[in-house]
Write a structure and sequence with these properties.
The protein is of the alpha+beta class and 89 residues long. It has two domains: 6-49, no CATH class; 52-88, no CATH class. The chain has two helices and four strands. The protein is elongated and about 55 Å long.
Amino acid sequence: MTRDYRVAKTRGAFVVINSDGERVSPFWANELSAERERKRLQDALDARKRAEFRACLCCAATFWSHGIHNRLCDGCRGHANRLGRDMAG
């Protein structure tokens, strides 16, 4: 996976730059803070890149998944949430 964001030093501060060379963060006083922001932005971008159609692990229906963390269709997720509330109840 390519790294789409990088940290750059500018005017005595640090910023996050995208692959087009545009600043996408505020100015940070230290490099560690800028690196944390770079990682947050990169993680969000990587998650969006992994969005695709997947088979639900419960019913096997194909649905639009927002990322590898999203493995249940809305119907099965709603059913699981209702069961959890009823059991806690």
